[in-house]
Amino acid sequence: MSLTQLFEPSGVAVVGASRTDGKIGYVAMANATQFEGPVYPVNPSGSGELFGAEFVPSVTEIDGPVDLALCCVPGPAMPDVLAECGEAGIGAAVIYASGFAEAGGEGEKLQERIVEVADEHDVSLLGPNTSGFLVPATDLRCSFASGVEEVPPGNTAVVAQSGGVAHVLGFQSRRQRRGVSAMVGLGNRADVGFAEAIEYFDGDDRTDSIVLHIEGTDDGRRLLEACRESDTPVIAYKVGQSDVGAFAESHTGALTGDHELYTAGFAQYGVPTVDATDDLLDAAAALGNSPSPQGPNVGVVTAQAGPGIIITDRIQRAGGRLPELTAETNARVDDILPGITYDDNPVDTGRPMPEFGDLVAAVAEDDRIDIVLVYELFEEALGLPVDTLEGLAERVGKPVLFATEGIEAELAAERDALEAAGIPTFETPERAADAAGVLARYARLHADDAPEATADGGRSLHSGPRGVPGEVPRDE
Fold first, then answer.
1. DSSP 8-state secondary structure symbol assigned to residue 474
2. Exposure winner among 51, 157, 173, 269, fewest CB in 10 A?
3. Which long-range contacts (C-beta less than 8 Å, at least 24 apart) are formed by 323-327?
4. In this structure, is residue 460 part of a structural domain?
């Protein structure tokens, strides 16, 4: 399956486009018209123009390039719509309607039918029961949610089982000033699922990290193999540690399965897991904007002891280690700033000072250190050590993370300069420490001698614990 027509269409048809403000067909058309290519409103009852484009009665009568159909029509109409898409040479479709497998009974049969029609006509389906997707760099806004035009382009691909969670992550990425390369709600995954999306975004030049939100899947082996084969780092958030199975099944037609089984399987296949949406984006920023960590050893430099203690504690609980610095580095630190509060690991200066960036460079160049984490409360008179740290991560081949806080208007420009210099920034010591912990776990999982043992005594998604190779067990 190629998803090029889905995410890189020459033109877009909005099937069921409507003049009525508030209807999905209206909002989807309003969002789609921002696309750089042609967008066609399709409705046999429509006449005149909508957002400057002439109504077309059917996709088969579109006179122009079109690869993608956004389907804003009820579920029972979808088999005929997909057949017309196939006739028109449209290779991808998004189905917003619900009432398919998540509804059970007749809905399951209808979902089977649309998959048959799509296979027959070689149409890739996103959904059904999805709120769509977004590719900000090309203004491809295939969502019926308001405000998606404000999500900026970035380098993280969001692949969420829930369209709602996909949009949560997209809007969070805006709040964090990071953006996304794409934001995708998979919905029921009748056709396009996790594996297909991972494979596509692994080959996407705009994507440097992939984050997954997962409720459940009946093809665990394929998901994990796609993660393992991806050269682009993948981070997963598996929900359902408590009993939410029935609710999840009614949402996207998926049972949540055994949570420990999922997390053990992800660990086996090199995917670190997190437990919050913010953590997903922080981990993506750390992995996507940094050199790959070669080990779990973290060097901490802090200008305030209190945040440094929080970081030191949290990193170790998150999977990182804080080794002693080499004697050479200790001597170098003492030469730079004699008599500082604490000169091992973490290095604590007690307050910001002009030599702070030199201390960070000294720790980063220590052979025992794989990851560097810096905390400095912003003082306007000193600023942040942007000039000293610019190019440091690339020069030493190690991730350098920086956490800071202060008055937004005062620190914004210098924090943005750090980001532009390849140093991911964070607003709290906890978030920075957790991101460093993900880097440490990622390094362990990708070490040449990474163990195959699982977290639950040997059961794994790979081994098929209930006699079905590679499948996640369904709740019984």
1. P
2. 51
3. 323/297, 323/368, 323/369, 324/368, 325/299, 325/363, 325/366, 325/368, 325/369, 326/366, 326/367, 326/368
4. no
Q: What is the DSSP letter of 446?
A: T
- 183 touches 151 (CB < 8 A): yes
Last residue of a domain, one of 288, 321, 345: 288
Q: Please indicate, yes or no, whether residues 188 and 302 belong to a single structural domain of this protein.
A: no
pLDDT above 70 as % of the chain: 90
Query: Domain end: 228, 258, 288, which one?
Result: 288
Same domain, 422 and 365: yes
What is 74-131 written as a DSSP string?
A: -GGGHHHHHHHHHHHT--EEEE----SGGG-THHHHHHHHHHHHHHHHT-EEE-SS--
pLDDT of amino acid 257: 56
DSSP calls for 382-420: T---HHHHTTHHHHHTS-EEEE--S-HHHHHHHHHHHHH
Domain span at residue 377 reads 293-445
pLDDT at 351: 87
pLDDT, tens digit, 9 for 90 and up, residues 396-436: 999 999 999 999 999 999 999 999 999 999 999 999 999 99
Whether 138 contacts 35, CB under 8 Å: yes
Asked whether residue 210 carries a pLDDT value surpassing 60, the answer given is yes
